[in-house]
Amino acid sequence: MENENYIKMILALPDKFFKNWEFEDGDQFYLTEDYEYYPSSKNYKTYTIINGKLASNIYAPEEWRCVSLDLGRPIPRQEQLQDMVINKFNGIPEIQLLESFYSWVNTQRYVDKKFEFHSIKCSMLRYAVLMLLRKEWDGEKWVGK
Prior knowledge:
Blueprint: H1 4-11, E1 28-31, E2 46-50, E3 53-55, E4 65-66, E5 72-75, H2 78-88, H3 94-111, H4 120-133, E6 135-137, E7 142-144
Antiparallel strand pairs: 1-2, 1-5, 2-3, 3-4, 6-7
Helix pairs in contact: 2-4
């Protein structure tokens, strides 16, 4: 299961963050609402995408539901976040992205006394949202910079 803080950050993202999202097999998806179709969704909020459908270990393939952004949020992997930033800046080399990310993390540790390093994923998400939307995480929501 994903880090709770990471899920909280994902759910607070504006829709435009995902506007060009393309689902891939193996992606994780967080179901934001309880549907009659998923009677036990209170216990199973995270699903894996297989062939464009939500899959879980409690339903047979013929019962899987087609995935769409109106059902919830994809849970981006670290490399997907990196690709989003690389694409935004016209294919900058990965090493340049990693150097920029490392520099940003180090700066945050000294400049922002409230900066908490929960995980690489949380930090990469914060960095990606800053680069793509110019928003920062205040611990509860994304705010404009």
